[in-house]
Amino acid sequence: AQSVTQLDSQVPVFEEAPVELRCNYSSSVSVYLFWYVQYPNQGLQLLLKYLSGSTLVKGINGFEAEFNKSQTSFHLRKPSVHISDTAEYFCAVLNFNKFYFGSGTKLNVKP
Amino acid sequence: NAGVTQTPKFRVLKTGQSMTLLCAQDMNHEYMYWYRQDPGMGLRLIHYSVGEGTTAKGEVPDGYNVSRLKKQNFLLGLESAAPSQTSVYFCASWGANVLTFGAGSRLTVL
Hints:
The structure holds two protein chains of two kinds.
Chain A: E1 4-5, E2 10-14, E3 19-21, E4 24-25, E5 32-38, E6 44-50, E7 56-58, E8 64-68, E9 73-78, E10 87-95, E11 98-101, E12 105-110
Parallel strand pairs in A: 2-12
Antiparallel strand pairs in A: 1-4, 3-9, 5-6, 5-10, 7-8, 8-9, 10-11, 10-12
Chain B: E1 4-7, E2 10-13, E3 19-25, E4 31-37, E5 43-49, E6 56-57, E7 65-67, E8 73-78, E9 87-95, E10 98-101, E11 105-109
Parallel strand pairs in B: 2-11
Antiparallel strand pairs in B: 1-3, 3-8, 4-5, 4-9, 5-6, 7-8, 9-10, 9-11
């Protein structure tokens, strides 16, 4: 079965600092990769996705992610975070019609 | 607005009671999913469906049943609720390379 690992359960960062949220997945076959954001007491919203093509993917709210096939990683980055980015972020993999999610990373942006 | 609608949003059950969560989507998507979200565990797939009349087990199917009698609806049932099923349940549908989530249903089993 597919597994998705988000090593950092919590990431504290100061406003306007850069941030990287890490995601690794287990499958060596072709997969589709996603990052979702969840604000408190809400559902999940799509930030960005990698289906094919360029390994650098740009999403909403200034986020981007890089697909690295050899390292089976899909790390999420933002060069300068804002207080409003405080939320929980989930990495996901689509493999054989099923979506597998990581355990989530809580991003806490401090003023 | 097009999207995924879950009902009810909140429910409190006693151990042993049964209930059904309803998920409806108006995007004509074939694929639908039920997940549960628990702190520190991310989202775990309970059951999913690849089209009307089909269902399949996910990672944590025990204690749950599902039905997809109509393409737009995906029902999740608990026949005999247990405290371990206290969770937030999310429905999602997949189409046009986007997985769209409902707002969630918070279930508490006492």
